[in-house]
C-alpha cells in the first residue's frame, strides 16, 4: 500500500509557541501554575503539562491569589479575564496566538467605529467566545453557516471576520451574501490563519488522491475536525482518530493508497505512531 503523509501535518506556529511558553513558565515560576482551560485542544499535550505540574484551571478562582500564575491559552480570552487576573494579583503569562490577538484588535476597533460585528465560527468555541468579548459597545453575531446570515437584521455598517480555523470557501460565501445587502458598508477581514488554509488545501489533495484518509488529532480540536469534514466530503473512507489505538485494520482492506494528515494541535509523536502502524499493516 502506498502511503503519503501531509507535509504540513501537526503543530502550527501559534500552538508551538503556546506550549513552549507554558513549559518555560512552569520551570521559572515557584508558585502554582495553571492554564485557564486546556492550553490547546489535544489531551496528550495537556497530560504532558500536568505531569510537569501545570494543571488546567476552569476559572481564575481555582488559582491561589497572590501566589498563583495563570497562563492564557492559545485560543485567547476577553478583556474581563485580564482585569480579573490583575484584581486577584495573579502572575499572568499570555500564550494567545498572535493571529487571534490581531482579531481582538480588529474587533475592538470596528466596535468602537459603530459596526455590527459578524463572526464566521462556532459560538461555543473558546476562541470565538474570546473574540466576542471585545464587542463592548455594539452588536456581535456568530454564524456557523453562511445562509443563516439572511435571518439576521443587520445595521448599515457591518464588519465580517472569521474564527482562525474556518474554511475559506465558507468565508467567501458569507461575504457574497452580505454583498447582496443594499446601501450597506461591508468591511471584510479574512482572519482565517494561513496555516489553516495550507492544511485544508493539502487535505483536499490527499482526499482526492487516496482511497483512505486518516486525520490525527484531538476530537475537540476545531481545525482537526474541520479537516476530517473536508476530507469526508471528498473521500467517504476518512477516519478521525485521536491516537493510534483507535485505528482498525479492517478499514484498510482492499485499499491501495492511504493519506495521513493532522490538525495544527497534533503532536508529531502522535502522527509518527499512526504512520508506523499504517506502514506495518501495509507491508
Give a brief rundown of this model.
The protein is an alpha/beta fold and 283 residues long. It has 9 helices and 12 strands.
Task: Give a structural overview.
The protein has 283 residues and is α/β, with parallel strands linked by helices. It folds into three domains: 2-10 and 195-281, 4-hydroxy-3-methylbut-2-enyl diphosphate reductase, catalytic domain (Cobalt-precorrin-4 Transmethylase, domain 1), CATH 3.40.1010; 13-95, Rossmann fold (3-Layer(aba) Sandwich); 99-192, 3-Layer(aba) Sandwich (Cobalt-precorrin-4 Transmethylase, domain 1). The protein is built from nine helices and twelve strands. The chain has helices at residues 13-28, 43-51, 79-87, 98-112, 126-132, 168-178, 194-209, 222-234, 268-281; strands spanning 2-5, 32-36, 55-57, 68-72, 91-94, 116-120, 140-143, 157-162, 185-188, 212-216, 238-241, 257-262. Strands 1-12-10-11 form a four-stranded parallel beta sheet, sandwiched between helices. Strand 2 (32-36), helix 2 and strand 3 form a beta-alpha-beta unit. Helix 4 packs parallel to helix 5 (126-132) and helix 7 packs parallel to helix 8. The chain is flat and about 60 Å long. The N and C termini lie close together (7 Å).
